[in-house]
Amino acid sequence: MAKHATTAVGWGHHHLQKRWLLALLLMLSVSTVIVFCIRAAFDSCDRNVPSAVSAANVIGLAPNAVQVAEKRALQIAAGKPSPLSFMKSKIVLLVSHELSLSGGPLLLMDLAFLLRSVGAEVYWITIMKPSETDEVIYSLEHKMLDRGVQVVSSAKGTEAINTALRADLVVLNTAVAGKWLDAVLKEDVHHVLPKVLWWIHEMRGHYFKLDYVKHLPFVAGAMIDSHVTAEHWKNRTQERLKIKMPETYVVHLGNSKELMQVAEDSVAKRVLREHVRESLGVRNEDLLFALINSVSRGKGQDLFLRSFSEALQLIKEKKMQVPPLHAVIVGSDMSAQTKFETELRDYVMQKKIQDRVHFVNKTLTVAPYLAAIDVLVQNSQARGECFGRITIEAMAFQLPVLGTAAGGTREIVVNGTTGLLHPVGKEGVTPLAKNIVKLATHVERRLTIGKRGYERVKERFLEQHMAERIAGVLKEVLRKSKNKSSTHLD
Ligand SMILES: *[C@@H]1O[C@H](CO)[C@@H](O)[C@H](O)[C@H]1NC(C)=O
Ligand SMILES: *[C@@H]1O[C@H](CO)[C@@H](O)[C@H](O)[C@H]1NC(C)=O
Ligand SMILES: *[C@@H]1O[C@H](CO)[C@@H](O)[C@H](O)[C@H]1NC(C)=O
Ligand SMILES: *[C@@H]1O[C@H](CO)[C@@H](O)[C@H](O)[C@H]1NC(C)=O
């Protein structure tokens, strides 16, 4: 491994895929050596989800692997004008609530790099930073510095204020970042609001506080990950807070190039599949249904296990001829959700399905699991996912999705075509069980649904699509803020 890493820089393009493979395998076998992350997908609804879990394409390895990848990304970019090229030389300030390996900040970093790649002048402010040095923050900041993002050292103070005043565009990330406006900008806040684009990725109740969002009506625009989340924000702000949303843009997310590269490499997929299956102790012909999300009640692992157990029962009763079914729960963290995790494990013992249910600790790399499984289960409860990036990641791997008919999942999965939807709550247990059996017994259908999912991703859920959508929003916001400032001067 070490030898490969040191010779990697000289590798040509067609060797690149092997690099990813090595990187992924290394991640799997040496899970503690997580040095660099390229980017992470996420589960936009829940900022607390360790991206580790929902992250798809965090690929760790030596810096030279990152350089090779970036060089290639630049070359690809050089071939085709980016939809964001009008942002060249524009000054953009990105304000992040925190800097961590969780979904929100990593998505904002993706935006930072997209903007850097077209020559924008990009500044970054992290509002909440621990006082002691933090390894993750250190490495993420250095990753940004390496790519020409100017990291403002303090969220408060004159440098932050001046950058905000000077910027053409300020992107606030997540609702809680709203607190920064008054606390730091003070009397200058009204000069900055007309050029603020507020990117919102959450819909839980406690975000609907005037404390956070009272300036929302006065910003240039809000950008939200799904229609259903945007609708929810409109309702809640109006009904609870009596404030009006600004112009709101729905921007569905897209899969990174790195993830697509692994997903489209059949050799890489095969190796990863064998490796993961071996580590779980399942055979190649066994059928794996996986739920990949941090383990918590909101993500519905408990209900999924009940459906899974029901499905096994159905198969037994009807004496169906199917390969052994397995359930994989990726995202386990015994130290965080001890009670719920214990409940899950007790249930498995009680039903005597220990040999069919596998718990995998939360991990920075989900690509190997996507390569190894046959069906993704997206069982988020209540309002569902805001978007649910793992869903489009799974579809990139040609996996059918069994999802709850809620939240962003409904905007991603076409029921009957790229997946099968079931209701949230207890009402969904039996329908999900039947859908599990359906996919287990109809091999052709399962594969077709997976292929259609992949086609849908290629049509609308790639990084390039996301960049196009964001470009449309930024153009509009720049136009508006320019108009505002020119009328101010008049
Ligand atoms: C928003 O409110 C309208 C009217 O009260 C309702 O029909 C709609 O379902 C609500 N949408 C959401 C997402 O809550
Ligand atoms: C999973 O995490 C637990 C602690 O939460 C740890 O004890 C265990 O060794 C981990 N398992 C693996 C395979 O890393
Ligand atoms: C999904 O499709 C199935 C069969 O076509 C149907 O029975 C089910 O009600 C649909 N679910 C949703 C949420 O549309
Ligand atoms: C600019 O602002 C004025 C009034 O503030 C408005 O009438 C006009 O339509 C705006 N123009 C654009 C291009 O948004």
Annotation keywords:
single chain; 490 residues; alpha/beta; Rossmann fold; 2 domains; seven-stranded parallel beta sheet; six-stranded parallel beta sheet; globular; disordered N terminus; binds 2-acetamido-2-deoxy-beta-D-glucopyranose; Glyco_trans_4_5
Give the class from helix and strand content and strand pairing: alpha/beta
List of distinct ligands in this structure: 2-acetamido-2-deoxy-beta-D-glucopyranose
If classified by CATH, what would the architecture of the largest domain be? 3-Layer(aba) Sandwich
Q: Spatial order of the strands in the main sheet?
A: 3-2-1-4-5-6-7
Report the sheet-strand fraction. Answer: 5-15%
Stretches with pLDDT under 50, minimum 5 residues: 1-15, 30-69
Radius of gyration, whole Å: 23 Å
Helix content: 40-55%
Number of domains: 2
The CATH class of the largest domain is identified as Alpha Beta
CATH superfamily of the largest domain: Glycogen Phosphorylase B
Stated plainly, the CATH topology of the largest domain is called: Rossmann fold
Helix tally equals: 21
Keywords: Glycosyltransferase, Membrane, Transferase, Transmembrane, Transmembrane helix
Pfam family, one: Glycos_transf_1
Domain Glycosyl transferase family: 274-455
Transmembrane segments: 20-42
